[in-house]
Sequence to fold (141 residues):
Amino acid sequence: MDLSKRFPRSPRETLSGIAMLPRTIDKARAHWAGTLGEYIYDCPMDKQLFKTLGIDAAALAAIVEQAADDRAVLERVRHIWRNPPPAEIESHNDAIEHWSPKSDEGRKHFEETRTRVAPTRTDVTTWTDLIDIEEGRLAPA
Fold:
């Protein structure tokens, strides 16, 4: 996957009911291919996913490198994850849906990005919305 030419999937997209997993798989594939572009593998949202699954970036990247598709990734991940209960997956998905700046520096970066990407959308307060706007999944106005 070449993330310098196309976008990864939305943070909202799920695999086995887990938000962010498809996007992180896309970034792991690009990581191995050397085609991450401006994306970051093991960013804070990825770290939330890893925490939920009880794995780390290196473990998922190694699985993705060997797996032909999402289903194969999921089968291999299930052998090492801690099998989070449904309530924890729901909490994880909610955290991804409502991901917002956590610091003054983060808020500044968020505001600068929103001003550049969707200057009229002051209703956008989460990174998840801003990512989807920037990548063309939500209308900027």
In short: The chain has two domains: 1-85, 100-141. The chain is about 55% helix and 5% strand. The first helix runs from residue 21 to 33. The longest strand covers residues 14-15.
